[in-house]
Amino acid sequence: MADVSLPTSLIHESPLCPALWPFSLDQLPPESYLVGGVVRDVLLGRQADYLDLDFVMPERAVETARAIAHHHKAGFVVLDAERQIARVVFEKATVDFALQEGDSLEQDLKRRDFTINAMAYNPHTEVLVDPLDGYSDLKQHCLRMVSAENLRDDPLRLLRAYRQASQLGFELDEATAIAIEDQAQNLSQVAAERVQSEVNTLLATTEGTVWLKRAWASGLLQPWLPSATETSLEQVASLNQLEAPLSQRWPELLTQDPAHLKSSLGKFGYVALARLLALTATDAQVAEQQLQQLKFSRLEMRAAGTVRRLQPQLDAPLSIRERFFLFQNVGTLFPVLALSWWVSKAPQCWSIEQLERSSITPLIEHYLNPNDPVAHPRPILGGKDLMRELKIHPGPHLGRLLTELQVAQAEGQVTSREEAFAWAKNYIQSDDFQRIYQRRS
Predict the structure, then answer these.
(1) Which residues lie below 8 Å from residue 364, measured CB to CB, with a gap of 6+?
(2) Are 368 and 253 in contact (CB under 8 A)?
(3) What pLDDT was estimated at residue 437?
(4) Rounded to an integer, what distance in angstroms lies between the CA atom of residue 389 and that of residue 32?
(5) How far apart are CA 323 and CA 364, in angstroms?
């Protein structure tokens, strides 16, 4: 087993330094090792906003976690009783303790996914244990599997390779790439939620697009996103090209707070959601079913259905009335609809001038104006006003009257309460209103 002494400067003020932990080094048994991503990231000089530590030890993992949690009055939970994995949750840190797999630390490390994740650091001795030469791979920015058998043991590792390569800016070694392609069909055995999490991370950044393409070329995405094609992946790449000119011409279109999306992709914004939809079927119902299979939320499913249904409407000029109902249907998903429409036109690098000349420019102007009566109608009159003045009762006919009144506002026919009452009195005599009213009666 290879042991490496790390420079003090590398350890100091990093998560490897016990002085920065929310508990004392004395509370850890001497054969406790830090493992996984935290060791890798420190060696890469990557800084995390939140302290997340993983320890393995040859015995008493759960008992150690429980004692530390009790001493510091921290949160404690057993994550896996059979494998003896427990978690301690501090205010600004999460610490996992696990029993090592196998009879030795080396056996434990040899069961991991990639060599760069198969290093362990002993904070008592300040020695890095590196039986698979992961440190050398790290310095060469190479993602190398521990073994093909380990990939078979957990097929999610096949997709995780692409995700980690994307996040770290690494390249797969040739043997690993071949093994992934050979085992690609095994990814269909993995729980949808786990696959979705990896896909989300690749969708979240422009760097992930290249690796999405490679995952598709390796056959990994087909069981989960069967409508993804070389063309749709080019559309995803086109979205990356769109961000720069859009940010210059209409910066608020993409920078509006997407928190209202409340989805697994919401925190990444509209572009990430548009990337996802580009990989779904053009048929609305099929697109929704595909996202349901991947366990996406109702929001993403609704977004897929809404965008796919409305997208064809943008190919022809729309009247004010048609624009009004388009915005009623799409709501806050309009930026996703606009992005999806742009990239559905032959994938290309759009310039600011081309964006301005596109047929949906008037719709963007509507959407970005918070006082616009087409995209953001504010009724002059409410239902109670109309019932009181016109002596009508609640029902579908009242809803239609309110909607048509808002359309009249959008078209500029109504600009004041007086005009609104006059318009409403005239409208209730129309055949359209009378048909609805009579059905109620």
Answers:
(1) 250, 253, 338
(2) yes
(3) 62
(4) 78
(5) 11
pLDDT for residue 386: 84
For residues 171 and 260, membership in a common domain is answered with no
- Residues 205 and 128 reside in one and the same domain: no
Same domain, 197 and 219: yes
DSSP state of 80: E
Chain centre distance of CA 78: 28
In the chain, the number of structural domains is 4
> What's the mean per-residue pLDDT of the chain?
91
Cα(437)–Cα(435) distance, integer angstroms: 5
pLDDT attached to residue 264: 56
The gap from C-alpha 68 to its chain's centroid, in whole angstroms, comes to 34
Length in residues, the chain: 441
Residues 167, 78 share a domain? no
365 within some domain: no
Contacts of 391 (CB under 8 A, 6+ apart): none
Nearest-angstrom CA–CA distance, 311 and 305: 10
Same domain, 216 and 232: no
SS3 sequence, 174-194?
A: HHHHHHHHHHHHHHHHCCHHH
> Residue 96 and residue 68: Cα distance in Å, rounded?
11
R_g of the chain, CA atoms, integer Å: 29
Confidence band for 259, pLDDT divided at 50, 70 and 90: low
Instruction: Please list the helix, strand and coil fractions of the chain in percent, rounded to the nearest 5, in that order.
Output: 60, 10, 35
Whole-number Å distance between alpha carbons of 165 and 175: 15
Domain co-membership, 427 together with 332: no
Q: Comparing C-alpha atoms, which of 132, 131, 197 is closest to residue 164? A: 197
174 shares its domain with 100: no
181 lies in a domain?
yes
pLDDT digits (tens, 9 = 90+) for 300-336: 899 999 999 999 999 999 999 999 999 999 999 999 9
Q: What is the CATH number of the domain that holds 110?
A: 3.30.460.10
Give the whole-angstrom CA distance, residue 10 versus residue 13. Answer: 8
Q: Is residue 151 part of a domain?
A: no
Whether pLDDT at 422 is above 60? yes
Question: 328 is in which domain, residue-wise?
Answer: 225-359
Residues 381 and 289: their CA atoms lie apart, in Å, by: 40
Beta strands 85-89; 93-99: pairing state: antiparallel
Q: Do 12 and 115 fall within a single domain?
A: yes
